[in-house]
């Protein structure tokens, strides 16, 4: 990993930290502001919808105009929204602050993905490092909990510091605009919209699978192995750790075997491993959890590069969809999965989820490597 890729990856982490920090704020908003569960669910919904649905809009804008300045500006915007929570005296003000964070996250990804394509030269390994930065940023968001527990929401203005640091280390990269500054008419290639739609469907299937797994895994393992709540939570560390390994493996495997072959085999392994999670009654299911996480994350960065290559004149749009809209689709179906689990069982839901990566395998056969 070269210096530019490392800095861009770190900047990505400083932004995605704010995607994961909103759920951390929820208990403190309930305790200090007296908001009920319905009110705080509005915060999570606002942050999720704005950070995902709006991303394709920013993708269209970055395809039309060169906007490298959007990267540091969106970082500061994301951090500012969280910082304002501490001074928000009313629910509408607090909701607007969280919405500001969602917009900042949405504005960052399309332009940053274009810049990553330029900085890494389109390297699969380079894009995997860029993706890993975002995943790690999301994973470390709970580290804000001890600060808020000690000082309360009054300390939330300090949470803008990661955004300031991320902007500071990213600004020097903007001088080497490269392909990130190219406009559609200056870029070669023909857009393959049918292939891109198929890829989007695959990403949606992966999103539903991962959201369902991460939502119910701790509960299921606790029931299956008769573990305490604390012991059950360790399962998520296995899930997140496997995700880190999978993200790094994705670029290397794609470089050696090709993106589509790598995606096809990783989703096949994910289907089998997730079935193992649902059906294995012993502690060996932890091994299947790790294998599922690795397999689901191997294609993560490959989705981005494939989307950009399928839409070579709409790189920003492709990035906005693959990083935002399609990835968040699983969250929309989370309530339906919860209702299904309540009506049947967690085991049945996890077993059904195992069919989604299998369906993704079939869809990959409709794709061809972009030329």
From TrEMBL:
Domain Major facilitator superfamily (MFS) profile, residue spans: 1-371
Domain of life assignment: Bacteria
CDD domains in the cross-refs: MFS_FsR
Sequence intervals crossing the membrane: 37-62, 69-87, 93-110, 122-141, 147-174, 195-221, 233-255, 267-300, 320-341, 348-368
One of the Pfam families matching this protein, by short name: MFS_1
InterPro entries (UniProt xref): Bacilysin_exporter_BacE_put, MFS, MFS_dom, MFS_trans_sf
Membrane disposition: Multi-pass membrane protein
Localization in the cell: Cell membrane
Keyword list, A-Z: Membrane, Transmembrane, Transmembrane helix
Protein name, as recorded: MFS transporter
Organism: Kribbella ginsengisoli
């Amino acid at each position: 990993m070269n210096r530019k890729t490392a800095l861009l990856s770190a900047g990505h982490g400083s932004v995605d930290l704010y995607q994961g920090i909103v759920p951390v704020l929820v208990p403190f908003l309930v305790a200090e502001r007296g908001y009920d569960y319905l009110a705080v669910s509005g915060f999570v919904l606002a942050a999720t919808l704005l950070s995902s649905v709006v991303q394709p809009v920013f993708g269209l804008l970055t395809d039309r105009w060169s906007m490298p300045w959007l990267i540091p500006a969106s970082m500061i915007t994301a951090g500012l929204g969280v910082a304002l929570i501490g001074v928000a005296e009313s629910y509408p003000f607090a909701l607007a602050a969280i919405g500001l964070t969602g917009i900042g996250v949405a504005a960052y990804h399309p332009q940053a993905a274009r810049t990553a394509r330029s900085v890494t030269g389109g390297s699969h390994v380079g894009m995997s490092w860029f993706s890993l930065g975002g995943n790690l940023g999301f994973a470390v968001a709970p580290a804000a909990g001890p600060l808020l527990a000690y000082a309360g929401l009054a300390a939330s203005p300090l949470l803008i510091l990661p955004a300031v640091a991320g902007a500071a280390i990213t600004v020097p990269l903007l001088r080497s605009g490269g392909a990130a500054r190219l406009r559609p008419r200056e870029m070669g290639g023909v857009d393959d919209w049918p292939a891109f739609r198929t890829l989007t469907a695959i990403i949606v299937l992966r999103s539903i699978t991962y959201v369902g797994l991460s939502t119910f895994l701790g509960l299921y393992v606790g029931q299956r192995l008769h573990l305490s709540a604390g012991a059950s939570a360790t399962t998520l560390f296995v899930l997140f750790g496997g995700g880190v390994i999978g993200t790094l493996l994705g670029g290397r495997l794609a470089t050696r075997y090709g993106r589509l072959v790598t995606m096809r085999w990783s989703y096949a392994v994910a289907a089998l491993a997730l079935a193992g999670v649902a059906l294995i009654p012993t502690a060996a299911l932890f091994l299947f959890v790790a294998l599922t996480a690795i397999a689901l994350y191997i294609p993560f960065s490959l989705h981005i590069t494939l989307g950009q290559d399928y839409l070579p004149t709409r790189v920003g749009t492709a990035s906005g969809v693959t990083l935002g809209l399609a990835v968040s689709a699983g969250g929309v179906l989370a309530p339906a999965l919860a209702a299904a689990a309540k009506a049947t069982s967690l085991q049945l839901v996890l077993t059904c989820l195992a069919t989604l990566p299998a369906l993704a395998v079939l869809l990959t056969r409709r794709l061809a490597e972009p030329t």
